[in-house]
Write a structure and sequence with these properties.
With 113 residues, the chain is of the alpha+beta class. It is built from 3 helices and 7 strands; from the N terminus they run αββαββββαβ. This is Arginine N-succinyltransferase.
């Protein structure tokens, strides 16, 4: 049906709408589904993100929430969900996590709780 999401993609639409995206009566030319749009400054993950310096080590997540972490590399962009202290000034990542992000200890990463 034109302008409607498939039931299997409804959860994705919900996530995008929680991030600030809205349906503005445009449809995708390939599948007829709705396109969701928003201004960059309205995306929650961008508004709430901050830059932190990474350090190598093993974390003890305890009750820390999952946070979205992204490198700052335009051509090799990577992002992960990691348990992290939302109030910390640095972000401790395992060697595996640093490798997956294509980062090194001391690099800056953007993250959002």
């Amino acid at each position: 049906m034109i302008g409607k999401v498939h039931p299997q993609t409804a959860p994705a639409r919900t996530v995008l709408e929680k991030e600030g995206f809205r349906y503005l009566n445009y449809i995708d030319i390939f599948d007829g589904g709705p396109t969701l749009e928003c201004d960059i400054d309205r995306v929650r993950a961008i508004r709430k993100s901050r830059l932190v310096t990474t350090e190598a080590g093993e974390t003890s997540p305890g009750d820390w929430p999952l946070c979205l972490v992204a490198n700052e590399q335009y051509h090799q962009f990577r992002a992960l969900l990691v348990h992290a202290d939302p109030d910390g000034d640095t972000l401790t990542l395992s060697a595996r996590e640093l490798d997956m992000l294509k980062c090194h200890a001391g690099d800056q990463c953007a993250w959002c709780a």
